[in-house]
Specification:
Layout (H helix, E strand, L loop, with lengths): L2 E4 L11 E4 L9 E16 L6 E3 L7 H9 L4 E7 L27 H5 L2 H7 L5 E7 L22 H18 L3 E6 L17 H18 L10 E7 L4 H14 L5 E6 L6 H16 L4 E7 L13 H21 L3 E4 L14 E4 L1 E2 L8 E4 L8 E6 L10 E9 L5 E2 L8 H7 L7 E3 L6 E4 L9 E6 L6 E7 L5 E5 L1 E4 L1 H11 L3 E7 L6 E10 L2 E9 L6 E9 L9 E9 L6 H4 L5 E9 L3 E8 L4 E9 L12 E4 L18 E2 L7 E20 L7 E8 L6 E5 L15 E19 L6 E11 L1 E3 L24 E5 L6 E5 L8 E9 L2 E9 L8 E11 L2 E9 L4 E9 L2 E9 L10 E8 L2 E6 L2 E7 L6 E8 L3 E10 L4 E6 L2 E2 L9 E6 L5 E8 L4 E5 L4 E3 L6 E9 L6 E10 L6 E6 L26 E6 L5 E2 L1 E6 L6 E5 L1 E2 L4 E9 L5 E10 L8 E5 ...
Helix pairs in contact: 4-5, 5-6, 6-7, 7-8, 8-10
């Protein structure tokens, strides 16, 4: 088996990219080695096209983005639709819906009239089908009826809902035939699906599903256009097999239509994408065999440093994560895995496939600021919108006035036919009125009218001093939107979607690679018989490991046989295809080359952390290396410009047509005739555009012959493929004409490069009569004897070959022909004419020949003692041997041998059957013709070819210094220039007789700013125009900034100085120039991780982290920042743990260092179930600090330890959320069934501070599995996934104290009225933890008796103003009656009071009645409860007097009487 191994260490053409520096020492990288294999003989079925399913979430998008979405062949997009949109709002209270959906007054509802047709028409440009999530908007826990109830109603009106679903879905489908999928609700485990629904309650959710699925059934009977509508659910925020199984079971039992099961997935361990899919589909198909699975959102697990859209490191991490996630969906066979997201709103920039390089304001609120539109065009509608914080409530964009100007600086009128107050405010010449963008959807929308002039300039007078970030886009048809100000770019994440789009439809077997959470993996596919593609990536997350990967590719498809293999490598990482790094958002190719096909090709690659690479392999003719069009004359169609750009080798220059009309022609004059092999066409933005075209060739430039027809004119439905084009054809020609006849793109034709390939300057197999014309041959040999040549045909192969008539004794036979040339190769097959001849023979090729007396001669020679390959030169009749090589086997008279003789400058090379046998130099002959020669015996010659030798560079220098790692066979380099150097000069030299061409022509590159990258092209050109080799330099001025802009640890370090007033800082306050910091961390901390260290020059500098190990309360963490220029700074963090509060006698303690947790049935970890199921949810895992306990499942659950008889104690633990909604906490006085307890936890919800920030600490009470928390006392505190928090809950009598990170947060008395529903004070119970519906980790769990540091406040025996006495009557319902008297000697309570009756069944609250009045002496008050079974003795009523009743918060701020229990 042959093996072609091309390793990066050898600096061959398989190298990804050489990093070079001027006056900078490159840093060596440590990389693990990994072997991987792709076997194209083993198919693994169709590839799941993960890139074709998408969440849009934000429209409209500009036309170049739409083109890209078309380019990746998007099949399904998802949109969010709210049921309440289709109801008019109640005029008295807009929280409520006004009336029934079929009320005549609702016919004017704008959403019902439009049915989002404009939006979906826009989406249909790039997607085949539409999926909508149909749900109610949610008013929040404080206002659950908002947007969900019709005015005057207090419960969910299901008949109205069922009727509304039919009307809404019918209307949407009627106007949007592309609607195909409807999800019922969205994440009903995170918020109630409808009024009265309880989160996570699947049986309750199924009533909503019933109504919507029945509506879908009905709509599908109405004969509407398009595919039948499909319905599914339960759309959980994370995979939960138990609840999804419950959904399937209930649906099947009730006969509901289920076309798909859907869920969302935001988890770090994406390997479960595969196993969860297999598990769910296996169960689903038992009941619904044709149903599919839809992961309608999948994305990155969290935010962190990725929240910065300018962070190239974070964006590369996102791209690698999403690649890995898609890979496991492809492995599992998910039917529709939907990427999240095309464009997201403010708090999740990193999830975007597209982002905006927005325009910026100056902060000047007095003067006009002018903006220039670089591409003015007539647009009727203009939309101006703020981006980032400019579209938030904290820093809203404000505009006083705006004006537009045409190209002649004439003002453009701004009409306001709809009397839009926002337009009026910015066009009334009154600075006192202004537009404020308070959210993402509040835009300025202008209608300039039909035939509006093109906007060339925009003037804005700002209303705020903040630096606004904004974009202005426009359209005339509401389908194609063009950017006026600001530019939408593609993120690394989307560039990986582009990579997936280049893969073939058939997966093939791969082996090797990691199956850990992080590591290197590969996906290989077959595109066709002549093309194969692979993606390989190194997902590291926050890790730094690189990987040296050897990829063995074997058993390539049949179309590769007999061909060379062209490989291309395209890369996404921190510095490639990464707009945040260098403002380039195209998919960058970092290497390409040609290799000969062997049984196994080994491609070697170094992948840096979070690098994703696409490798394309294509079967090509070897002549693809011979580009003979470089620098040649180009003629274009009238109006088309930039012809020279097509042959300059520069992929950033283009020839562009003036209009979008076709046909357009490009004609290349090659300067002389060549034996053509084909043509490559690099279209601008080829990934999203396809073209139809023809190629013709001509010898005289007048009479053309069709060489390739890619118009498919006979097929009216033909759609040209996207991507660059490669056409193969043969024939001798000087002129090549490309005629482009059409495109999938509606803009003007733009072509970056055309490359004409030649098989040679001469090619002859002697098959035709013309081929056998020897009139131009010089056949004169020694003594001026002419050697006639004839031709013979093989009776077996039918091949014709040339043969001299005779040997003329000792005089050789010569044939010298062709043009006088310098650098070229001559190739022929040679054989002894008589297959049985055993005597002496000499046969071979001539190069640089002028006559038989002056030439180079490469021959095979056989004598009775030798079998050799010999290179001779003959100069003016004198022969000199230059090289002699013994052949490994005797020359066989019956065998054909392929000989190649190449002359390049002074270098001369000879090959026998493709094997180099000598490589020497000589200066005697600089040019000449080629020829054939034989001696001693007749020899046969066939398939004679003369081909160009593509020149190479001998060196590339920057400011006179050869760039590091230069190798003439490597064509792409990155060169770092010191920040102190603003201009450099690039020079180069060519091998042999070649010359160089440079772009820019001056050779000088000037930088305008540190970090700026500029490209530079050097071409090594054949001196005779017979080929070119292009070398690309990316020159970048290196930054020497080695400082940090942000530094954050795995614990909150900012003391809580103002509980409830502000959110403590999450990052260390860095002081410029200061490298040493003393940091106080929570007590009992034993390991501090540096979770975020963002260099100021984050796109180029790197941070090396050394975490802090705490010993005896102290430790040191370090961050070493290395700048792009190689300078370093070291930040030292001296860590000091807070003193731990004194502890009493230990009741329970566990740190899990032994690798297990206490499972003792009497006092170990228990989840309250019978039998105990804690082992199904808990496990001990490893962390940097040691072993910790992890609750790893996605079910909300409490776990208890200890003794039920515990009363007063102190419980402490360190907790960490692994996922955003884990919300871990500690609990005390828990019942054995874990349904009642006190809890202190951290929460990710809105904390009530201005600006809508999130994160707080909450004190709560679980009452029969119903959680009651002090909503009015949320203490803002950072909630950071991955951070450790120290929680401490102290219970003493009815006194509760809660601490977070050694800070006292809560100090409360539970007198029975502390929590909503007024549960009685808990007296005793176990300690433990409680985690919501995601994973969290726990360590250093401790329960102790109380100590003196806990100030025990005894119950306050305050004399309350009122006393109660009463009774409960069970006739005709439950009638509670109390007599309220004023207590003697008690202080009067001013104002009104509230008598509160609470109905309970056992300990579970059922209902309440509250009556407010000014209570005097002897007032009797009654409350009635209409229950169907009043005789049920489990019913009882609590009665008491309180100061007020806040219906919104359901809180009882002050008790004015003791509680009376009426039974």
């Amino acid at each position: 088996m042959g093996l072609l191994k091309k390793h990066c260490a050898a600096l061959t053409a398989a190298i990804m990219l050489t990093s070079a520096a001027v006056s900078l020492a490159p840093q060596a990288a440590q990389a693990a080695s990994m072997n991987m294999e792709a076997d194209y003989a083993v198919s693994e079925g169709p590839l799941v096209r993960t890139e074709q399913f998408n969440n849009t979430n934000y429209t409209p998008l500009p036309v170049h983005v739409v083109d890209e979405l078309k380019g990746i062949k998007t099949k399904v997009v998802r949109d969010f639709v709210k049921i309440n949109w289709y109801y008019n709002k109640d005029s008295a209270n807009s929280d409520y819906l006004a009336y029934s959906i079929d009320d005549a007054r609702n016919a004017t509802n704008p959403d019902l009239l439009s049915a989002r047709k404009e939006t979906y028409d826009f989406m249909s440009q790039f997607s085949d089908s539409l999926l909508i999530s149909l749900a109610y908007s949610y008013g929040g826990d404080a206002n659950p009826e908002k947007n969900r109830l019709i005015a005057g109603e207090t419960t969910m009106n299901w008949p109205e809902f069922d009727k509304a679903m039919k009307k809404i879905i019918f209307t949407l489908k009627e106007k949007n035939p592309e609607l195909e999928y409807i999800e019922v609700g969205n994440e009903p485990n995170l918020e109630p699906a409808f009024y009265g629904h309880t989160k996570e309650d699947i049986p309750g959710y199924m009533r909503m599903y019933q109504g919507m699925s029945e509506a879908v059934k009905w709509v599908n009977t109405q004969g509407l256009a398009g595919q039948s509508v499909k319905v599914g659910g339960p759309v959980l925020s994370g995979y939960n097999f138990d609840k999804q199984k419950q959904f399937v079971d209930i649906a099947y039992a009730n006969g509901y239509q289920v076309d798909f099961v859907s869920w969302h997935r935001y988890q770090e361990d994406v390997r479960m994408n595969e196993t969860q899919e297999i598990e769910m589909k296996g169960y689903l198909h038992r009941f619904y065999p044709n149903a599919t699975t839809i992961v309608s959102e999948y994305g990155w697990k969290g935010g962190g440093d990725l929240s910065d859209a300018t962070n190239n490191v974070g964006l590369a991490k996102q791209a690698a994560f999403m690649t890995d996630s898609a890979y496991f969906y492809a492995r599992g066979g998910t039917d529709i895995p939907m990427n999240w997201v095309a464009v997201h709103t403010l708090n999740a920039y990193f999830k975007n496939q597209f982002d905006v390089d927005y325009a910026l304001s100056t902060g000047d609120t007095t003067n006009w600021q002018s903006f220039t539109n670089s591409d003015p065009r007539s647009l009727q509608y203009l939309n101006l919108r703020g981006w980032r914080e400019s579209a938030s409530t904290s820093k809203p964009m404000k505009i006083k006035e705006i004006r537009f100007f045409d190209s002649n600086n004439n003002p453009i009128p701004i009409p306001n036919v709809l009397n839009d107050p926002s337009i009026a405010a910015v066009t009334d010449n009154d600075d006192a009125t202004q537009f404020t963008q308070s959210d993402y959807w509040t835009w300025l929308k202008f209608d300039l009218g039909t035939n509006a002039p093109a906007v060339a300039r925009v003037d804005i007078k700002w209303g705020n001093t903040d630096i606004n970030t904004f974009q202005l886009i426009g359209t005339s048809d509401k389908l194609k939107y063009y950017e006026v100000l600001g530019h939408t770019f593609f993120t690394p994440y989307f560039n990986t979607m582009r990579m997936f789009a280049q893969l073939g439809d058939t997966r093939v077997k791969t082996s090797g690679g990691s199956m850990e959470i992080y590591g290197t993996r590969m996906l290989a596919t077959k595109n066709s018989d002549t093309k194969a593609t692979m993606m390989v990536w190194n997902k590291q997350g926050d890790g730094t490991a690189s990987a040296n990967v050897d990829i063995s590719v074997k058993n390539l498809p049949a179309g590769f046989q007999g061909k060379s293999v062209r490989y291309k490598k395209l890369l996404v990482d921190e510095s490639h295809s990464n707009h945040a790094y260098n403002k380039r958002d195209d998919l960058q190719m970092v290497d390409e080359g040609i290799v000969n096909l062997t049984d196994t090709i080994v491609l070697s690659q170094t992948l840096e952390k979070n690098a994703v690479m696409l490798i394309e392999l294509e079967a090509v003719d070897p002549s693809i290396k011979n580009i003979v069009s470089a620098g040649k004359a180009v003629t274009l169609s009238p109006g088309m410009t930039g012809g020279a750009n097509l042959v300059d080798g520069y992929d950033t220059t283009a020839a562009v047509a003036a209009t979008n009309t076709y046909p357009q022609t490009v004609t290349v004059d090659l300067g002389k005739s060549y034996q053509l092999a084909g043509m490559g066409i690099d279209w601008t933005n080829s990934a999203s555009r396809g073209y139809t075209y023809t190629i013709e060739s001509s010898l005289d430039g007048t009479h053309f012959t069709l060489a390739s027809d890619m118009t498919f004119s006979s097929n009216p439905t033909y759609v040209p493929p996207l991507g660059n084009s490669l056409a193969w054809f043969t024939g001798k020609a000087r002129y090549v004409k490309l005629t482009v006849t059409g495109s999938t793109y509606d803009g003007p034709l733009s072509i970056n490069e055309v490359k004409v390939f030649a098989d040679g300057m001469y090619k002859n197999g002697f098959e035709s009569v013309a081929d056998r014309d020897t009139s131009a041959w010089t056949m004169t040999g020694y003594s001026s004897v002419s050697t006639p040549w004839t031709f013979a045909t093989d009776s077996v192969t039918n091949n014709t070959y040339a043969i001299p008539v005779s040997t003329y004794g000792t005089t050789p036979s010569f044939a010298i022909l062709g043009d006088d040339m310098k650098d070229y190769g001559v190739e022929a097959r040679v054989k002894v004419a008589n297959s049985s001849y055993a005597g002496n023979v000499q046969m071979g090729l001539l190069a640089r020949a002028s006559t038989y007396n002056s030439h180079y001669y490469f021959k095979l020679m056989r004598t009775n003692t030798t079998n050799q390959a010999i290179l001779e030169k003959r100069i003016n009749g004198t022969t000199t041997v230059l090289a002699t090589v013994d052949l490994p086997a005797a020359i066989d008279s019956s065998k054909w041998y392929k000989l190649n003789l190449e002359t390049i400058g002074t270098a001369i090379k000879g090959y026998v059957d493709g094997v180099l046998v000598f490589d020497t130099t000589d200066t005697s002959r600089t040019s000449g013709k080629f020829g054939l020669r034989s001696h001693d015996a007749l020899a046969s010659f066939d398939d004679v070819r003369v081909y160009p030798i593509v020149p190479l560079l001998g060196s590339i220098k920057v400011d006179g210094v050869i760039i590091n790692g230069f190798d003439p066979r490597i064509n792409s380099y990155t060169v770092l220039v010191p920040s102190s150097t603003s201009t450099v000069t690039v020079t180069g030299s060519a091998y042999g007789t070649g010359s160089i061409a440079v772009l820019p022509a001056s050779g000088q590159v000037t930088f305008d700013a540190v970090g700026q990258e500029k490209t530079y092209m050097i071409a090594a050109l054949s001196s005779e125009g017979n080929g070119a080799n292009y070398y690309l330099l990316r020159l970048k001025q290196a930054s020497s900034d080695a400082t940090l802009s942000s530094l954050r640890l795995s614990v909150v370090t900012d003391p809580l100085t103002s509980p409830g007033q502000k959110l403590p800082a999450m990052s260390i306050a860095l002081i410029p120039g200061q490298m040493n910091y003393t940091i106080h961390v929570p007590s009992r901390t034993n390991y501090v991780k540096v979770v975020e260290a963002v260099p100021t020059a984050s796109n180029v500098a790197t941070a090396q982290i050394s975490d802090g190990v705490m010993v005896n309360g102290t430790g040191t963490a370090k961050v070493t920042v290395t700048s792009e220029a190689g300078t370093t700074s070291v930040y030292t963090l001296n860590l000091v743990a807070n003193a731990e509060a004194p502890t009493g006698a230990v009741l329970y303690q566990e740190n899990f260092d032994n690798g297990s947790y206490n499972s003792d049935p009497s006092f170990g970890w228990n989840n309250g179930a019978t039998p105990n199921a804690a082992s199904s949810h808990l496990r001990v895992v490893d962390e940097e600090q040691g072993k910790v306990l992890e609750k790893y499942t996605t079910t909300s659950m409490a776990f208890t330890v200890g003794q039920s008889a515990w009363t007063n104690y102190d419980v402490r633990a360190r907790v960490k959320a692994q996922v955003g909604t884990a919300l871990p906490g500690v609990i005390a006085r828990a019942s054995d069934d874990a349904k009642n307890f006190y809890m202190l936890r951290i929460h990710n919800g809105t904390n009530g501070l201005a600006g809508g920030s999130t994160g707080y600490v909450a004190l709560g009470r679980m009452v029969n599995s119903s959680l009651k928390e002090l909503d009015s006392k949320k203490i803002p505190y950072p909630y950071i996934v991955g951070n450790w928090y120290q929680l401490r809950l102290v219970v003493e009598g009815n006194h509760l104290k809660g601490y977070v990170d050694d800070n006292l947060i809560f100090d409360e008395i539970d007198n029975g009225a502390l929590f909503s529903s007024n549960p009685p004070t808990l007296i005793q119970g176990k300690a433990g933890i409680r985690v919501a519906n995601q994973a969290a980790r726990i360590d250093d769990f401790l329960v102790t008796e109380l100590t003196d540091d806990v100030v025990v406040v005894p119950p306050v025996e305050t004399l309350l103003p009122f006393t109660l006495e009463g009774q409960l009557n069970r006739s005709n319902g439950l009638n509670a009656s109390v007599l309220v008297n004023r207590a003697a000697n008690a202080a009067d309570h001013p104002g009104t009071e509230v008598v509160f009756f609470q109905l309970l069944q056992g300990t579970t609250p059922v209902s309440y009645v509250a009556m407010e009045s000014e209570i005097g002496a002897g007032n009797r008050v009654a409350g009635h409860f209409d229950v169907p079974d009043p005789e049920n003795m489990s019913y009882h009523v609590h009665a008491f007097v309180v100061s007020s009743w806040d219906l919104l918060n359901e809180s009882l701020p002050l008790s004015l009487s003791n509680k009376l229990d009426l039974e």
